[in-house]
């Protein structure tokens, strides 16, 4: 048998490379009580590489490497950023938002105004599908809303190809000074279970008593990168993240943003990433 000499630098390089790309994982908890925080997005900053924490607060990022800049964000908490190690357990601190002067307006709930984006759920044929990312649709305030200033209901279309329910998240957030979605929520996180097939997802937010901000707001849909949210597609021969989010069928002003890795891509640039910049189909109802 002939024994070949393997150069030392190749062996060293193998071990360094193997170490650098070993699994980046960890757990996210609430600093105040030590409880796990589920459904938190954990990103390699400014990339589409990321994961979502499960109900136990644990996560594992496929494709991340030691030394990557990790960004962890969740509504109601201060963002955390650090250099990745093999195991990364972090505690998130609750963020206290500075509140503007509050004007108390009594809610009567006697009148209603609808902002329509779609009418027939089953007619939808265009979808935002596979991939771990967020979609945020901007709604501008109009004077015709003056008599119905409260947000009472939002609805959108979801397609779930799995037999089991899958979860995703909806957030209502303020507009940041640069015009993109901010980290300041108008409500708490809204966790949604999507059943198999095409469904209209209806969320009643009447009890939140949210006034439509005069500078507008965003409805953000977060696709959660959880193992149980994947379904194998026989045609594509790959696992597809569920659910898909419905798009508008009619051409309207483009006002949907694309988010990943701690950054937001504006509507006119989305096409370079997703091949389309159609608006997500979202109806909202207002009341007085």
Give a quick set of tags describing it.
23 strands; mainly beta; seven-stranded antiparallel sheet; 6% helix; 288 residues; Immunoglobulin-like; Jelly Rolls; single chain; disordered N terminus
Characterise the protein shown here.
With about 290 residues, the protein is mostly beta strands. It folds into two domains: about 10-90, Carboxypeptidase-like, regulatory domain (Immunoglobulin-like, Sandwich), CATH 2.60.40; about 110-285, Sandwich (Jelly Rolls). About 5% of the residues lie in helices and about 40% in strands. It is built from two helices and 23 strands. It has helices at about 10-20, 270-275, and strands at about 25-30, 40-45, 50, 60, 70-75, 80-85, 85-90, 110-115, 125-130, 135-140, 150-160, 165-175, 180-185, 190-195, 195-205, 210, 215-220, 230-235, 240, 245, 255-260, 265, 280-285. The strands form five sheets. Strands 8, 9, 11, 15, 16, 20 and 23 form a seven-stranded antiparallel β-sheet that branches. Strands 10, 12, 13, 14, 17, 21 and 22 form a seven-stranded antiparallel β-sheet that branches. The chain has a four-stranded antiparallel β-sheet with strand order 3-2-5-6, with no helix packed on it. A hairpin with a 6-residue loop joins β5 and β6. It is globular, with a radius of gyration of 22 Å. The relative contact order is 0.20. The model is unreliable at about 1-20 (pLDDT under 50). This is TonB-dependent receptor SusC.
